[in-house]
Design goal:
Chain lengths: 101, 484
């Protein structure tokens, strides 16, 4: 049985939407980060699905780049969260309000 | 079975290689220099790299091809943007040195990150493939996240870096989803091929979705109106030299991509979507200018002003004709010089450790430091768009392009917005010359590097404002790649 591509797309869009909602409503910086990762992985899913649909590999190639970029972003992000925790003792973004948010 | 190895010409990406190598070299020099010795070579090395890259770009000027299996455009359009980025990077380096020394943060990695960010910008301007463009965006963004958080002990800097990182990564995800949708609609990442598919097959739901998400992603980077919320906080909290760098570099690079995609890939869509961009441009200008009126922190005020400038530049894109494209390129050159200059003055006046960032700290500057005040006035008049500065000519090109394309109302709103901006830019000038100093803030550290850079930028703003033809001709030969 072949899964139609719309199924993959629907799943990918759902994951992306959950990620967006998570970023918008959660207050913990680490969880926001995880939601962003989920958005990126939703994109990866749709890229792999399209890549299979077109029988071309360039979509899958981009998936690797996305993974690398996500890893780099997390490395920087966790370092920053760590520094903020050390300076301020919190990772909740609504408590980071020295400047008007 | 045989594998065909594509031929590549490394000289085509010479400027990128120079900057990358210089960045790596800086990291090595930093790592291997003896502890405690004065590390003073970083900015010299990076400036030499920037100068070499400029020479390479000039040498490349005139080529028109694609390289690296069509991943990179080698054309005057990219070269023009290379020069803008290199100008921005070079001036930012000159402005950073003393500022970082005051904070004891004159590290090699700062300059290395700046050069890497410049490489990312160049990849964005030259990218012929959505993958290259995406990687360019990230190579530009990640170093800037780090640079914004460079002052580790400063809570403001921490906060600014985290906000920029979270919202930047969020917007990259949108950009990427847009890329995936375009790939789904057309089956290719190459801009040329996407353009062909759309020309023959028209648009469908996936293409529209992809384009919309792409606009959201790039809109974040240039801080268009509904996506501008991060700009003031990030600009205020980041080290001033980093603010200067990102306010000009990120914007120019994102507009390079924006313009290439809209002129080359979606020329027909641009006409269908002009209403959307129209609304974005009007919202961006108005929000930027009106909110800037209420600011008392100069960095925050310049942040809102940079939002407003993104709106003006968008007008050129809506016009969508050759003059509009030239106007955007010209405006970006002018904006780079004026904005970097203004931030340079902010660095000087804020004195040690960013103590004086309120606009009223500028009172009496005209009597204490007439030269500094004069230079600041030139930048402020330029940002307003008064003749004979470059800002006026830039606005003139963009607005006349929009009139040529029959967007009279848009131009009217743009002009009204420029009038609003007169208030908050000239308020600085008025405070400097009409108000006596409220308190003795201590001496301004006028060092040779900073003053020379500022004077040179101010003179350049005036010269390309009075004799715009040379920049105009360069821009004209750069936008010839776009048909019509």
């Amino acid at each position: 049985m072949v899964m139609p591509i719309t199924y993959y797309l629907a799943l990918s869009c759902a994951l992306f939407a959950i990620g967006v909602i998570g970023v918008l409503i959660r207050r913990n910086a680490i969880i926001i980060f995880m939601c962003i990762e989920m958005m990126l992985n939703a994109v990866n899913l749709s890229l792999v699905a399209f890549s299979d649909y077109y029988k071309a590999i360039d979509g899958q190639m981009l998936v690797f780049f996305v993974m690398v970029v996500a890893a780099a972003e997390v490395a920087v992000g966790l370092a920053l969260i760590y520094v903020i925790f050390r300076n301020k003792g919190t990772v909740y973004v609504d408590e980071l309000n020295i400047m008007k948010w | 079975m045989s594998i065909e190895i594509p031929t590549i010409n490394l000289t085509n990406i010479g400027p990128l290689i120079t900057l990358s190598v210089a960045g790596l070299l800086l990291l090595l020099v930093d790592a291997f220099s003896i502890k405690g010795t004065k590390k003073g070579y970083f900015h010299q090395i990076s400036l030499v790299a920037v100068v070499i890259a400029v020479l390479q770009t000039i040498w490349l000027w005139g080529r028109n091809e694609m390289d690296f299996s069509r991943m990179i455009y080698v054309d005057n359009y990219s070269f023009f943007f290379y020069l803008i980025f290199l100008l921005g990077t070079g001036v930012s380096i000159l402005l950073s040195v003393r500022y970082l020394e005051n904070y004891n943060k004159n590290y090699g990695e700062y300059y290395a990150l700046m050069l890497f960010a410049a490489v990312g910008m160049m990849l964005m301007a030259a990218g012929g493939n959505l993958v290259t463009i995406f990687l360019g965006v990230e190579i530009l963004s990640i170093p800037i996240y780090i640079m914004a958080g460079m002052f580790r002990e400063d809570l403001k800097s921490n906060e600014s870096a985290l906000k920029y990182l979270l919202l930047g990564a969020f917007s990259s995800a949108f950009l990427l989803f847009g890329i995936a949708m375009l790939y789904g609609a057309t089956g290719t990442f190459f801009l040329e091929d996407i353009a062909k598919v759309i020309k023959s097959g028209g648009m469908n739901a996936l293409t529209y979705m992809g384009l919309g998400l792409l606009i959201v992603g790039l809109g974040f980077k240039v801080s268009l109106a509904p996506f501008h919320m991060w700009t003031p906080d990030v600009y205020e909290g980041a080290p001033t030299s980093v603010t200067a760098f990102m306010s000009v570099g990120t914007k120019a690079a994102a507009f390079a991509v924006f313009l290439r995609i809209f002129m080359d890939v979606f020329p027909t869509v641009r006409m269908d979507w002009d209403m959307l961009l129209w609304v974005l441009a009007v919202a961006t200008m108005t929000v930027g200018n009106v909110t800037a009126l209420a600011q008392t922190n100069i960095k925050r005020m310049l942040a809102y002003s940079s939002i407003a400038h993104a709106g003006y530049i968008l007008i050129g894109m809506i016009a969508g004709n050759q003059l509009g494209a030239i106007g955007i390129l010209y405006y970006l050159v002018a904006y780079t010089l004026m904005n970097l200059g203004a931030f340079g003055v902010v660095i000087l006046v804020s004195r040690k450790k960013d103590s004086y960032l309120n606009i009223y700290d500028y009172s009496g500057l005209g009597f204490q430091y007439p030269g500094l005040a004069l230079v600041m006035s030139v930048f402020m008049f330029g940002l307003v768009g008064m003749p004979p500065t470059a800002g006026f000519i830039g606005k003139f090109y963009i607005f006349s392009a929009a009139i040529e394309a029959n967007y009279i109302w848009l131009v009217l709103i743009g002009v009204v917005n420029s009038l609003i901006s007169v208030y908050y830019y000239l308020r600085i000038t008025v405070i400097m010359y009409m108000k006596p100093a409220e308190a003795d803030l201590g001496p301004v550290d006028m060092n040779a590097t900073m003053t020379t850079t500022l004077i040179a930028s101010a003179v350049a703003v005036l010269i390309i404002g009075i004799f715009p033809s040379s920049v105009f001709n360069l821009a004209l030969s750069s936008v010839k790649i776009f048909g019509s």
